[in-house]
Amino acid sequence: MKKQMLLVTLALSLSVQAGAALPEKVADTPLKPLAQQTQAAIWASRFLSRYHYKAVPLDDAMSEKIFDRYFKSLDGEKLFFVQADVDQFGAARSRLDDAINNENLSVPFAVYNLYQQRFNERFGYARELLKTKFDFAVDESYQYDREKAEWPKNEAEMRELWRKRIKNDWLRLKLAGKDDKAIRDTLDKRYDNYMGRSRKLNNEDVFQIFMNAYTMSIEPHTNYLGPRASENFDIAMRLSLEGIGCVLQTRDEYTVVREVVPGSPAGLSGKIKVGDRIVGVGQGESGALTEVLGWRIDDVVAQIRGAKDSTVRLDVLPAEAGVDGKHTVIALVRKKISMEEQSAKKSILEVRDGTAKRRVGVISLPTFYQDFEARRKGERDFKSATRDVARLLGELKKEKVDNVLIDLRNNGGGSLSEAVELTGLFIDKGPVVQQRNAEGKVEIESDNNAGLAWDGPVGVLINRGSASASEIFAAAIQDYGRGLIIGEASFGKGTVQTLVNLDRFAQGEKAPRLGELKMTIAQFFRINGGTTQLRGVTPDIKLPAMADGDSFGESSYDNALPWTSIKPAVYITAGELKEIVPMLDKRHEARVAKDKDFQYLQEDIALAKKIRKENLISLNETVRRKERDTQEARSKLREARLLANAVPSGDDPVKVADPKEA
């Protein structure tokens, strides 16, 4: 989707009224706010409270949300602060609004300085624990996801938590075959690296963490980008198709693959999946692997980036593997990803139903792409997802396919105009999507071109990774009754963002750099009046949900904009598929009930959900070995089944791979 670029500035600052308690001890080298950061803060607050789609005043209620999210941003797993640390800043809880308006950022920086002090203390204690011996015959467990846990009440409770954490780290390496000396050296180096990297954080990093605590307290897709982050974002936008093609995020201490770019080295390798955890990075064919557990995300990205045609090696803990699972080392050659490699592609799948044989044309669309620059220049043959799909549909007609399936799994969106025009290939004319701005004005995007490129049966395949423009297309096909939606519920992102350039309005000849604001300005609505926000698109025929809805998708955010509705647009349905969906669903259930591989898949999903729900890992070596061996046996059995059922590639005209995990 083409973004507007609003040229506005922000300046925001924070102050707390006299009397807000500060800690007695702070970090050895306390960080302090810069003057331009207080400027960025005050303007941001004014802009967000007036022009955001969900304009929220900066008042005491917002102050409390910022306070809680800031502590969560610093210590989301409750591993560093004890309850008393949080309590000593209690006087500032409802005063951060006054702090911002009074241009005094002392409190958020004081909070961070205490965090840095606690960080050093905890890892100092961890390194001391490495000199002791652990008893792995004891039956005890460790809660590895502490996001919803309470703050430890005191130092004794915190130390017990860290004893189990370090014991778990030790046991992981022990199960991997390392001896005590190697384990001790590995962990000591790891913890020392954690401390060293933490000390490299500067006041810009602290300010960005605090500002995002503010912006994301409004809703999850609004963010502040400091000067360095803004620069990296611009680089990412210009060079987004160069590198290995992975979008990364941090989860716990892992760097996790959030998205694999179609046509990229990672995508073409078939070896990298969403949910995979990158635990080490090596340069060249034989360079030593550097462990990146606990690293900042931009530092990990810096390790993975490199010159075109150079090799990078990734030490990966697969998404489906447990914490003690087998690692794989994957070598990738960094490349520039061409638009051609990301283009829509077709294949034909022959399906037997009793004695009948049907030919299904499959069009895989990785993104809703368009060469905006070529179109702006008036070039007649500019690259376009809609044009490519129209051409492929013409080819499939000549190849006498019976049905067409549009595969939008893991398609995160792209151009809004392409989503509208692509819908037009399957309907005659009419509205496709509605858009409401912050003032409440509703605009309707329509297909105005008469005629259909394909008037036969249509299916749309989606999963949790199908978002934005993908949801617009799938929702329109569903609302028109034009085709069946198959798969799992989509992501649920129904909002529009823009970038606000803060530097535009910085004062003086040597104006300070203030960064940028990514802000939500509008919301999408289906033509039936509902929105794709939060709930996404619900498929007509449901497949097992591979993704963890608690950690991936709009509903995983605690403050996502709610589902709502507006007046439906005026449109004429192409068919009443809802009447036959129950019958088709029964046939689907009857078929998969006889499919052993489908049952195995459901068992794997149920097991993964059970493990996530339990949120505990045993610290008993015998128990852990048994769990690991059981999981490895299941993996080998799964691979054997897949090999046994595999069709020689020469006989298989299409491979519709099951997506990553989301």
Global geometry: globular
Count the helices. How many? 18
Instruction: Give unreliable regions as ranges.
Output: 1-27, 234-241, 647-662
User: The biggest beta sheet, please?
Assistant: 6 strands, mixed
Helix content: 25-40%
Counted beta strands = 22
Q: Over all CA atoms, what is the radius of gyration?
A: 27 Å
Question: How confident is the prediction overall: mean pLDDT?
Answer: 85
Structural category is alpha+beta
Textual characterization of the structure:
By secondary structure, this protein is of the alpha+beta class. Helices cover 37% and strands 17% of the residues. The chain is built from 18 helices and 22 strands. The chain has helices spanning 35-51, 60-74, 83-87, 96-101, 106-129, 155-175, 180-199, 203-218, 227-238, 265-269, 297-304, 372-376, 385-398, 416-423, 469-479, 581-592, 596-614, 621-645, and strands at 5-6, 141-142, 223-225, 242-243, 246-251, 254-260, 277-283, 290-291, 311-317, 328-333, 335-336, 345-353, 356-364, 403-407, 430-437, 442-447, 458-462, 484-487, 495-501, 516-525, 541-542, 617-618. The strands form five sheets. Strands 1, 3, 15, 16, 19 and 20 form a six-stranded mixed beta sheet that branches. Strand 5 (246-251) and strand 6 (254-260) form a beta hairpin. The model is unreliable at 1-27, 234-241 and 647-662 (pLDDT under 50).
Give a short overview:
Helix content is about 35%, strand content about 15%.
Short descriptors:
single chain; 662 residues; alpha+beta; six-stranded antiparallel sheet; globular; disordered N terminus; disordered C terminus
